[in-house]
Amino acid sequence: MHRFKKILFVSSGDKEDGAALDRVNRLALGNQAKVCLVRLVEELPFAAGLLLARKKTEEFREASTAHAQDELDRLKERFDPAVKVETRVVVGKSFVELIRMVSCDGYDLLVKPRERHQRRKSLASVDLHLLRKCPCPVWIIKPAQRKPFGKILIAVDADPSDAERLQMHQDLLKLGFSLADTENGKVEIAHTWTVEGETLLRSPRFGMTQAEIDVLEKEIEKTHRRWLDELLAPHRASKPRTTLVKGESGPALVELIDKKKPDIVVMGTVARTGLPGLLIGNTAEYVLGQIGCSVLAIKPQGFQTPVD
After folding, report:
1. For position 203, what pLDDT does the model report?
2. Which among 285, 291, 297, 296 has a CA at the least distance from the CA of 120?
3. 75: nearest Cα among 10, 133, 140, 30
4. Other CB atoms within 10 Å distance of the CB of residue 48
5. pLDDT exceeds 60 at position 79
6. If you write DSSP's letter for every residue of 285-302 in order, what string do you get?
7. pLDDT tens across 133-165, in order?
8. Which is it for the CA torsion 90, 96, 102, 103, positive or negative?
9. What does the alpha-carbon distance between residue 83 and residue 26 come to, in Å, rounded to a whole number?
């Protein structure tokens, strides 16, 4: 992966951070990138602050910060001496402070071990906030993911009608293939399609026969195949495997991911909707809430975070 020069690694303090940390070390060496190790210390809850004396509150913050800094210093020693590494302890609301760091300091990749969640296949709140709102690519790595990413699935929307979306998916492909080169992995491209209004077309009002529906389906699938071939034209030399799946994009992708069991899914997370509050596409929201593997996600060029 030859595009990242400033990497922000978010440490959880868990011993399983090591797998993600080793991967960042290799990535930084290959890119001659700088790395910042950050540990977030949450503020005491408001109610606790009311119950504790101000001096005790300050002592708690100082002790938590010192402990976090000691952990970062130990992690820093794991990096190759050739990698420039700095450490920072930040106090505040986790995803907000991380996004501010990315925006202010110009990090071009955020790497974070996936947080544990009650539901094994659901992302924790902090991870989802970062995928929705962080302006740079976000790489959420499954704990204990020590082996290379041998199976890489890139989910794309090949519809050429939206130039911004099309450019984002070209960026996805470049990133996915670059990851495959680094990890010596194999890429599979997934694209979903459906017959819009199929239920209505089958109703008595339209009365289309099964034979007519079959012809329509073949033509629509043929169109999507052509769109996908056009999207993949710059990458023909890589000879990626492609899979077209008929069905609603979210459920169809989740079913495919469950079947293929990739080590990582590469996808876009933002849909251009014109609605300020909708900062993640419906498909991405559904898929990310249902899968348990690592995720590498990007947003369209020019995306602006809503976090001040």
Report:
1. 80
2. 291
3. 10
4. 12
5. yes
6. HHHHTT--SEEEEE--TT
7. 899 999 998 876 667 888 999 999 888 887 888
8. negative
9. 9
